[in-house]
């Protein structure tokens, strides 16, 4: 008889209910900062918003780099590298096993007040011409935003690297449950892309997915570390920034160049640029307006 691997759901549920455990230490927002950001938004008529993991921490999804609470501070594990995923069947098996165990809980995460505030700026107040997110959690779509570019892809779509067939991630999850019926449960903790820690036994017993059309390698439609953002997506963002009058960055340290170059373009083109983030960002020296605050403490008070 196959060995059954059991996990405890209670710790993970507790983590999601106590979302503040993923938000870095921060000071209360100042009234003056609220007034400054409100004036920035009021003057903006064609605004591009760029969001990062710092807004999803308030929904219970950790970021990578925050001091003490980010994934790099909590574990020595690092995200899968694109070339490793391509070259190694063991790497793919390990990735898919961890993603399979974590996906059910990851997919149930709900938007928070920041996501809804951004939605209101776009849909109710017609301020936002494009919302660019570095997150792969699709929480902006869940909140009702329309003009969304998922810069680094989405965890909710799967693509074949051979024939380019596309699959809904929920469909793949059901397929995986059928062929991995000997495994069930979840692990403690979750990562920004839905990954989790699992035992070596679970990994060894896991059966990874393959393309139904050609038998090729399946990969979530996510830009892995070491991969490039598709050119068509880069061009869409670049054109949106050019047509805008302002850029608002929310919850991103801008450590990844794909996000930072958006700021550089906006500055070069003379757009008004503002950043709201807990802690320093890569672009602090490039912009005139930086507010050190939790997005959930300031944006809902304006929107």
From TrEMBL:
Under Gene3D superfamilies, the record lists: SIR2/SIRT2 'Small Domain, TPP-binding domain
Q: Which residues form the Deacetylase sirtuin-type domain?
A: 27-303
Q: Which UniProt keywords apply?
A: Metal-binding, NAD, Transferase, Zinc
Keyword Metal-binding carried by entry: yes
One annotated GO molecular function is: histone deacetylase activity, NAD-dependent
Q: How is this protein annotated for GO cellular component?
A: mitochondrial matrix
- Pfam families (alphabetical): SIR2
Q: Which InterPro entries match?
A: DHS-like_NAD/FAD-binding_dom, NAD-dep_sirtuin_deacylases, Sirtuin, Sirtuin_cat_small_dom_sf, Ssirtuin_cat_dom
Keyword NAD appears in the UniProt entry: yes
Please name the NCBIfam families in this protein's record.
Answer: PRK05333.1
Name of this protein: Deacetylase sirtuin-type domain-containing protein
């Amino acid at each position: 008889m196959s060995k059954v691997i059991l996990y405890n759901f209670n710790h993970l549920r507790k983590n999601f209910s106590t979302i503040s455990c993923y938000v870095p230490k921060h000071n209360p927002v100042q009234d003056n900062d609220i007034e400054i950001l409100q004036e920035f938004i009021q003057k903006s008529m064609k605004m591009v918003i760029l969001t990062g993991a710092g807004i999803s921490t308030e929904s219970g999804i950790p970021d990578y780099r925050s001091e003490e609470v980010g994934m790099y501070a909590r574990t020595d594990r690092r995200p899968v590298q694109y070339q490793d995923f391509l070259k190694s069947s063991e790497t793919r098996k390990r990735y898919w096993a961890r993603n399979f165990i974590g996906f059910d809980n990851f997919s149930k995460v709900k938007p928070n007040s920041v996501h809804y505030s951004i939605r209101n700026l776009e849909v109710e107040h017609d301020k936002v011409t494009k919302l660019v997110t570095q997150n792969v959690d699709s929480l902006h779509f869940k909140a009702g935003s329309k003009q969304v570019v998922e810069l680094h892809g989405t965890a909710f779509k799967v693509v074949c690297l051979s024939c380019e067939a596309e699959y809904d991630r929920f469909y793949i999850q059901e397929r995986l449950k059928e062929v991995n019926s000997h495994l069930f449960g979840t692990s403690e903790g979750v990562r920004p892309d839905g990954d989790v820690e699992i035992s070596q036994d679970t990994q060894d017993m896991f059966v990874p997915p393959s393309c139904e059309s050609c038998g090729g390698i399946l990969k979530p439609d996510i830009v892995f570390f070491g991969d490039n953002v598709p050119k068509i997506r880069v061009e869409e963002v670049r054109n949106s920034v050019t047509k805008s009058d302002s850029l608002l960055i929310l919850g991103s340290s801008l450590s990844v160049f794909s996000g930072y170059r958006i700021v550089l373009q906006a500055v070069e083109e003379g757009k008004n640029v503002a950043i709201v983030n807990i802690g320093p960002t890569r672009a602090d020296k490039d912009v005139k307006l930086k507010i050190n605050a939790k997005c959930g403490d300031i944006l809902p008070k304006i929107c």
